[in-house]
Amino acid sequence: MNADEVFALAVISVLLLTGLFLFFRSILRILPRIVWIAGTPTSPIRSLAIGLVEVTGNVKIEEPIISPATGLKCCLTKYKLQELRIVHTRNGRTTSWRTINSGFLCVPFYLQDKKGARILIDPKDAELRIPRETYYPNTGLPANAAGSIRYLEQAIYSNSLLYVLGEAKKKSRFADLKDGVSTDLAVLRGDPERMAALDENKDGQIDTVEWEKAVRNAESRVTEEAITAAKNPLDTVIIGKPSAERPFIISTHSEKEVLNGLRWKGYSTLVLGLTLVFFNLAGILGFFFNQPPFGKNYYKMVELMVENAKK
């Protein structure tokens, strides 16, 4: 076996493994997602059941974050900050965008349907199907000049219409009032302005009396929230990442558009994987056993391409 034959076999083996990867990816990941989405009916928010649910509605944000790309209030941003690099060569110049910073920020937000009912969404770990936009900050440089920067961002802004597939579950905050109080106090400690407001005698320290008052206020707030939640069951429910291997999707596209995209991706990946497996397995059999005939011809074609690539 000469070097060209070994290299040709290596190429065919890599293509065979690629085909197996694509085949199992479509069977184990993409196609089951199609089944989950198609088999989960869209539910009115008021009649949500605990478990995998599918809802649509407009985004309502109570505690927004600021998008680094646009400076606008949002509830989720996944961004890259890139700088334009220009390299001069003998044949001219080449340009490329190099990522100098990236990040992901999100906060829970409400999704409100046409009837006014709303449900809390925790977007952490969701599969985002949101268009990526490009923004060029005003730096005084032309967009094609070396050193110019741009943002690539996926973001969710207030009033955006979303499709969400995830697991509806009870909020852990209301499961234990003690945990709720601890959470409130932890937030309080992280807020310098609120901590300063606790210092009623202005001695620069929070004494025992002042802290006990803060604890009582936190207990009152959490208890009031729990009572309110008992009156409105939806306030105790949140949609987030499923505990099992089920999809969690947040999309600005409709359910139909999401399904069509997944079907195209799933079926094309399946066909491509099977095609690679079929021809490259036949190529290996053709090399070692001279059967099937088209497999031997396929191997010869790959070997010829390897020889031409070396010239």
Describe the structure.
It is a single chain. Helices cover 43% and strands 27% of the residues. The chain is of the alpha+beta class and 311 residues long. The protein has one domain. A 5-stranded mixed beta barrel has the order 1-5-6-11-10. Strands 2, 3, 4, 8 and 9 form a 5-stranded antiparallel sheet that branches. Strand 5 (109-112) and strand 6 (118-121) form a beta hairpin. The longest helix has 37 residues, at 3-39. It is extended, with a radius of gyration of 28 Å.
Keywords:
311 residues, alpha+beta, five-stranded mixed beta barrel, five-stranded antiparallel β-sheet, 6 helices, 27% strand, extended
Summed up:
This protein is of the alpha+beta class. It has one domain. It is 43% helix and 27% strand.
Distance from N terminus to C terminus (CA atoms, Å) equals: 20 Å
The DSSP helix count reads: 6
Rg, Å, rounded: 28 Å
- Could you say which structural class the secondary elements and strand pairing correspond to? alpha+beta
Shape: extended
**N-to-C SSE string, H for helix and E for strand:** HEEEEEEEEEEHHHEEHH
Describe the largest sheet.
5 strands, mixed, barrel
How many beta-strand runs?
12
Work out the count of structural domains. 1
Outline the low-pLDDT stretches.
Answer: none
Q: State the helicity in percent bands.
A: 40-55%
Strand order of the largest sheet: 1-5-6-11-10
> In percent, how much strand structure appears in the residues?
25-35%
Instruction: Name the average pLDDT.
Output: 85
